[in-house]
């Protein structure tokens, strides 16, 4: 079993955990969950994609269960939302939905970068790198939607998984075809995912539906 230890990768992973835990806690508040439910949703959503990634890569136990920083950071994100809600009233009602979507876009970008970056460290082929990036970026959101009884956004939202796929392709091309450093490729990938997702949010982009 191989375990990749990389400071930049860990930093990106932890940043994604913080952002996603905040967004998923807000989603829990909007779904009228109690404080415990909000904490559970924030934790499961924030680390879920990374856990799936590590299982697919053969890292056991996953990083989220080996490194106490992951649950601590997820709890910080959830606690910030809970405290804001207790102090100012129903936090979900005064937080514009598009602001929450942009927060999630940032989390999606960081998580997709972490997945693609780690898959490259395992020297996987390009298609596998893209698949791992999508799992890492979208896995937590799928768990959130399942727990809140919604059709997963990855199956219906405009340029959600598509943005992660495009970003992972950028990562593979930059590293494998041009020889760019993984740090530069990670930055370009994150910008690509975030730009596509936010453009889809504000431009109402959508893939074709058949109904």
Walkthrough of the structure:
Helices cover 76% and strands 0% of the residues. It is an all-alpha fold and 211 residues long. It has helices at residues 7-30, 35-57, 63-66, 69-88, 91-94, 97-121, 126-147, 161-177, 182-203. It is built from nine helices and no strands. It is globular and about 50 Å long. Helix 1 (7-30) runs antiparallel to helix 2, helix 6 (97-121) packs antiparallel against helix 9 (182-203) and helix 7 runs antiparallel to helix 8 (161-177). The model has no long low-confidence stretch (mean pLDDT 89).
- The total of helices stands at 9
Which class do the helix and strand fractions yield? mainly alpha
Question: What is Rg?
Answer: 17 Å
**Terminal residue distance:** 46 Å
| Percent of residues in beta strands | under 5%
Largest sheet: none
Mean pLDDT: 89
What's the total count of β strands?
0
Helix fraction?
over 70%
Low-confidence stretches: none
Outline type: globular
Question: Element order, helices and strands?
Answer: HHHHHHHHH
Concise account of the structure shown:
The protein has helices at 7-30, 35-57, 63-66, 69-88, 91-94, 97-121, 126-147, 161-177, 182-203. With 211 residues, the protein is mainly α.
């Amino acid at each position: 079993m191989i375990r990749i230890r990389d400071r930049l990768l860990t930093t990106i992973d932890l940043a994604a955990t913080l952002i996603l835990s905040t967004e998923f806690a807000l989603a829990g508040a909007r779904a009228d969950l109690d404080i415990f439910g909000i904490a559970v949703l924030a934790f499961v959503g924030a680390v879920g994609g990374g856990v799936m990634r590590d299982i697919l890569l053969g890292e056991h136990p996953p990083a989220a269960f080996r490194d106490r920083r992951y649950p601590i950071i997820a709890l910080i994100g959830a606690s910030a939302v809970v405290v804001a809600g207790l102090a100012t009233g129903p936090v979900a009602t005064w937080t514009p939905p598009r602001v929450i979507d942009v927060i999630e876009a940032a989390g999606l970008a960081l998580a997709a970068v972490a997945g693609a970056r780690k898959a490259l460290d395992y020297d996987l082929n390009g298609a596998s790198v893209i698949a791992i990036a999508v799992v890492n970026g979208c896995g937590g959101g799928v768990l959130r939607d399942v727990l809140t009884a919604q059709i997963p956004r990855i199956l219906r939202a405009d340029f959600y998984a598509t943005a992660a796929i495009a970003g992972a392709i950028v990562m593979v091309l930059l590293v494998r075809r041009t020889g760019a450093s993984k740090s530069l490729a990670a930055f370009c990938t994150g910008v690509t995912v975030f730009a596509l997702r936010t453009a889809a949010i504000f431009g109402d982009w959508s893939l074709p539906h058949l109904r």
